[in-house]
Amino acid sequence: MTRRADGALETDVLRALWNINQPASPSDVIEDMSTDLAYTSIATILGRLCDKGLATRKRSGRAYRYEAASSEADLTAQRLRTILHAASDRQSALAGFAQALDPADAAQLFAILNDAP
């Protein structure tokens, strides 16, 4: 059995919540992920995502149903802002990011920036 990279299981579970796009039980997540991981393992990961503010939960009978706290796009944008905020040289960080983009992504970013008010 191969070991997942740190945080990979949380990412996979969060991706399942985005795919399901409605309140989901741990069983729903297991089904979406097509995994043989235990219900309790997925429930633990969902609880950790809630503790981190990445998911929310509401009681449904004796169990909980979970939803992603934000969309994938919103979470990615927030993470990018956090990284940029932590950089001591924002201009160099932005330049390095822009230079590393493939041409299609660079063109899309350019178009978005030109359309910004």
List keywords for this structure.
single chain; 117 residues; two-stranded antiparallel sheet; elongated
Structural account:
- Helix content is 62%, strand content 10%.
- The model has no long low-confidence stretch (mean pLDDT 93).
- It has 117 residues and is mainly alpha-helical.
- The longest helix is centred in the last third of the chain and has 15 residues, at 72-86.
- It has a two-stranded antiparallel ribbon.
- The chain starts with 7 loop residues before the first helix and ends with a helix.
- A hairpin with a 2-residue loop joins strand 1 and strand 2.
- It is built from six helices and two strands; from the N terminus they run αααββααα.
Map the helices and strands.
Elements: H1 8-20, H2 26-33, H3 39-51, E1 55-60, E2 63-68, H4 72-86, H5 90-100, H6 103-115
Antiparallel strand pairs: 1-2
Helix pairs in contact: 1-2, 1-3, 2-3
Based on CA atoms alone, the radius of gyration comes out at: 18 Å
Q: List segments where confidence is low: pLDDT < 50 over at least 5 consecutive residues.
A: none
Number of helices: 6
Span between termini: 51 Å
* Quaternary class: single chain
Relative helix content: 55-70%
Task: Give the strand line-up of the largest sheet.
Answer: 1-2
Number of strands: 2
Overall geometry? elongated
Helix-strand topology string: HHHEEHHH
The average pLDDT score comes to 93
**Biggest beta sheet attributes:** 2 strands, antiparallel
Strand % is 5-15%
Structural class: mainly alpha
